[in-house]
Amino acid sequence: MLRGAASAQAWLPEPLQIVASTSEQAARLAPPWQAAGFRVQSATPAEFRAAGPGGYWWVTADAAEALGPEAITARLKAGAKVLLDGESRASTALLKLRPSGAVGRRAQMSGVLLAWDGDVAGLRPDVPGTVLATTVPASSMPGKTAPKGTSQAATDQGTPALFQAGPLLWSLPRLDQGLGVRRLPYLPQVLHERWGLDAQAERHDLDLYVDPDLLTGKVALPERLRQWKQSGVRRVYLAAWKEDQTRGYRYDYPGFVKAAQAAGLEVYAWLAWPNVTLGFWKQHPDCREVTALGQPARIFWREHVALEVPRCFDLAWAATSKLLTSAPFDGVNVAELYFESPVAGRADPSTYTPMHPELRKAFAVQNGFDPLSLFQKGSKLAADTAAWATWTLYRETLLTDLHAKLLARLHTVPAGKRLMATLIDNRLDPALSTPLGQHIGLNVGAVLALRAATPFEVQIEDPYLFWASDPARYARLPGLYPEVETGGLLLDINVVDRDTWPRGLVTRRLGGFEFDQAVSAAGIMGASVALYAASTVLDADLSWARFALAGQSVQLQEGAILAGQAGQIQTRSVTPFWLRLARDARSVTIDGQPAPLSSPRLIAVPAGSHALQLR
Fold it and tell me: Is 23 left (phi over 0), alpha (psi -120 to 50) or beta?
C-alpha cells in the first residue's frame, strides 16, 4: 500500500519514496520496486520539500524540473539519498551535465548487455563520481546497427548511463517513460549496495536446477552451496544422468549430496527421462527411440529411450534405480517426461517420437494401421483426421501410463518417498498451449489425477512460447490448477537466452527488474519458485530472488498509527516468511505468544495473518 511520505515506520526498513508531479503518477511507478521487495511510498514535490531529514528518494525528471537544484541540494544536505533521471534543471546544475554528442540505445550494467526502447541523447556529468553503467557500441548488440540518420561513430562513444556522486545517483535514460526502470535492470542491487536500502521481507523457499557439468568459475562446491543457501535456496534438483558405464564414469553424487545437506540444502534427483544416461544409450542401441524419419531420437540435448517398450523400460529402471540408491537423495523430480517435439509436432518428422518398431507393431495390432504411415507421402492415412485422432489419443494415454509406471516404481526406493513431477503448462493460453500439449503427448489433467494413487508434488513449467512475454503471466498460473492445494504448487521459471530479442525486452536472458517481476508474480498466491538453472541465473538475480519472492506475497502494516501500540506490525502471507527489521529487536511476540529471534533483525513469521509486537 502506498502512503504519504510523512508516515515513518520505525521498525520496518525505510521506504523508497517516489516523487512525481502527483501522488497518482508516483503510484503508477511503484509496482516494479514493490516486486523487487522494497517498501514504496509516494510523494509530491511539496511533500519532498517539507520532509524531515534523511530518506531514500527517486525524484522523477518532471518533479526535479519543478523543484530545481536548490530543493534537491537542501535535501542532500539533510542526509537524504536521491536518484535523479534524465535531464532537468536539477540534474543539469548538480552534475554539470553537458551533451556528449552520442546517441545511446544500448548499455551495459553489471556485465549484462541492455537494449533500450528508444534513442537516448548522451549527457556526460562533469563532477567527480563513479560510473555504474555505460552506453556501449551498437556493434555489441547482435544484428543491430546505428539508428537511421545517426553516424556509427556517434553511437560508439560510451557515456555514463548510471552515475554516482556521493549520495546522489543519476540515470541517463528517464525511468518514468517507455520501459521505465527496466532500462537499468539492476537498480535494486545498486540502491542496496550503494545506499543501504533494504527489502522488507524474504522467503526461503526457492528451488534450483543444477547440472554440475555446466557450473563455471573456480568457486569450490562448499562455498557455492553456502551462497545458494544464503540466497534463500532450500532444495536443488541435481541432474541424475551423469553416468557413462562404457568408460567407467559416474558423477560423485554421494559427495555432492553430503556437502549440500551439510549446508542445509535438500537434494532431489532430477530425472530427465526419456533420457536415461549416455552410457545406457551406448549399451542398448535396440532401446533407442526412433523418429518418424526412422532415425535414432537424439533430439536437442536428450538421447531418447523407447520407454514404451516394456523390456526397455525395465532396463532403464534398473540403471536409474542403481543411480538413485548410490547417494542419500531427499527426493526425486520427474521433469519433462514427454515425447517430441514441442516446437513443431507432426510438422517435423525428424523430431517426432515415438516410432520405435515394437511400438508401431503393438499399435497396429490394436488399431489396424502402422502409425508411421501417417507421415508417409501419398498415404491416405496422412490426411485421415480420424486416424490422427486415434493415434493422438493412444500417444497421450501412453505418456500418462508411463508417468504412472515410473512414479509407482520410484515409490519403492528411499528417495522416491518424496516425489515431484514437473509438467509443461497447457492451460495458460489454449490457442498456444493445446497444440503444444498435442505435440508432446502430455495431458496434464490426466497426470495430475495420478496423485490419488501415488502422491507427488506438482511443478508447472510455462512453455517456451511464453518466455518473451509479460512476467505477470506467472500470477495467473496457480489459479489454473485447482487440483493443487493453495501454496502447494511450484512454478518453474526458465532463465535462458531467448531466441529473439524483440522490442520491449531489455535483456536477452530474463534478468533484473523483469526477473524480479516474474519471481514476485509467481509467489503472489503462495506458490514456490524453481529456477532453471544454477548455470544460467546471474548471481545478482539469484541473490535477490528471495526478496522478490516475498515482494507481493507478503503484506505488512504498521499497527501503531491505528492502534496506538508502539512496535506493532500486522502481517499477512500465504506462506511463511522472514521479516527484516530496520533496527535491533530485543523480543518479539506473535499473536501474544513469545517467538524466537533468528537474529536481532530477522524474524521468522508463519503463514496467515498475525500481529507482531516488537520491543
Answer: alpha
Domain at 206-551, CATH homologous superfamily? Glycosidases (3.20.20.80)
Given a cut of 60, is residue 464 above it in pLDDT? Answer: yes
Residue 2 pLDDT? 40
In whole angstroms, what is the distance from residue 14 CA to residue 84 CA?
Answer: 19
Cα-Cα-Cα-Cα torsion 179, 83, 549, 538, nearest 10 degrees, comes to 70
Cα 55 to its chain centre, rounded Å, is 30
* pTM as predicted: 0.94
Provide the CATH topology of domain 16-198: Rossmann fold (3.40.50)
Q: What are phi and psi of 228, to 5 degrees?
A: -60, -45
Check: CB of residue 459 under 8 Å from CB of residue 333. yes
Query: For 252-298, what is each residue's pLDDT tens digit?
Result: 999 999 999 999 999 999 999 999 999 999 999 999 999 999 999 99
Cα–Cα distance, 21 to 614 (Å, whole number): 36
Number of neighbouring beta carbons within 10 Å of residue 166: 12
Count helices and strands (H / E) in the chain: 18, 29
- Percent of the chain clearing pLDDT 70 (strictly above): 94
How crowded is residue 576: how many other Cβ atoms within 10 Å of its Cβ?
A: 15
Cα separation, 55 vs 560, in Å, equals 20
Return the domain boundaries, the chain.
Answer: 16-198, 206-551, 554-614
How far apart CA 560 and CA 412 sit, in angstroms, is 55
605 in helix, strand or coil?
strand
